[in-house]
Amino acid sequence: MISQMGGVTIRALDLVTAVAYAVDCVNHHVAEHHVKTAIIAGNIAHAIGIARRDLENLIMASALHDIGFFNSGERLKALDFEYKDSSHAEIGYALLASSPIFSPYADIIRNHHTPYVEMDKNVTNLLSNILFVADRIEVFLKNKVNGNAIEYRDLSNEILSLLRKYTDRHFMPEIVDAVKEVCNVEAFWFDLEGNDSSSPLRRYLGNSQLLFNWDNLYEFARIFRYILDWRSPFTVTHSSGVKAVATSIAELMGFSQVEVAMMGLAAWFHDIGKLAIPLEIINKPGPLTYDEMAIMKRHAYLTYVVLDSVDELDTVKLWAALHHEKLTGDGYPFRLTKPDLTLGSRIMAVADIFAALTEFRPYRQPMTPQKAMDIIKDMTSSGKLCRNVVDCLKRNLDLINDARLEAQKEVLNVYRGMEELICKDRPVMCKIRPYAELV
Ligand SMILES: [Fe+2]
Ligand SMILES: [Fe+2]
Ligand SMILES: [Fe+2]
Fold it and tell me: How far apart are CA 252 and CA 388, in angstroms?
């Protein structure tokens, strides 16, 4: 269906680096980790003379490589140079491998902490090992200095002797030789201190870089809702529920097929800024303090920022990022009022509230659809939500709620298939099982 949205294409790298930016916003200690790892990997691969297609796959994989980390505590532990736990690599692999578009990156990500002596000799494993080396160099630099090329360059010898310590087992000697070559190139260090971090990547990819059509984009959003929603047991089915409600309302209110598909995309993306919100806040079993709420409110702003970097997603951005705005002007993050909020944004606001109220939260039980409607009606009476949208939901409550349940059950089945992997060493994810009960 979505292919009917025409010949719109976007640069895959723009989208992926935008999402990586959100992933890395979770803590300043990991700021820009993905994009800088991609720059280092690109430089090494270029020095080795990797074929263009493989270089492209490596850069995309590098920009996504840590998506299997669901919480910031684990990510901080990975800043230890000798970090050994590779379960996040397995999760990243499992999330991406199911998709034909992402499977080449999945294979590279899977072994980005695997010693080369444990792997067969082939191109994919060479790329994995380059990613392994690039990731460790980025972590090393991050722990040492703060982004100055001259200071960075002075560390070349330290980097090389550290890598050589591990060449008998972890890092392929030819990759370490390439690192030596790269360290002599001034541009490498300037790349790493640059402000527009994605421009060095464009230099390697040139004009031939991968383009996403709408089908790819849809696939990307489909996978990314898992990465986003599965960070917390309370949100495992959230974006899927919002999508079902928002697209049902849009359809009933006369949106075209293309617009309904765009609404689906916007729903999957609407909370993408939550990637940057610490789990301690998302999972807090009680009301948030003023400061915690301020951090939480940042997610809608970040959804806006992430989607803003891709011009072709302008409408999707507005429908996705304004879901906490209220017609009365007391929503967030822009405090917009009625004239600024289009029907698409108003639908998303209602869909988000309905889906959230019918889900478990750490501080309350899920509400029945009728109870959720009572709250939504109150908010409509006080002028916060759009009456036409709420009337549509009210008139078609059973139909829309059934669509929500069906979508959420489907995603729950996918989650259960991966539960063992996700819960390994993460008892919190398994101890609470609220997602198992849908109402
Ligand atoms: Fe990493
Ligand atoms: Fe939200
Ligand atoms: Fe939401």
Answer: 11
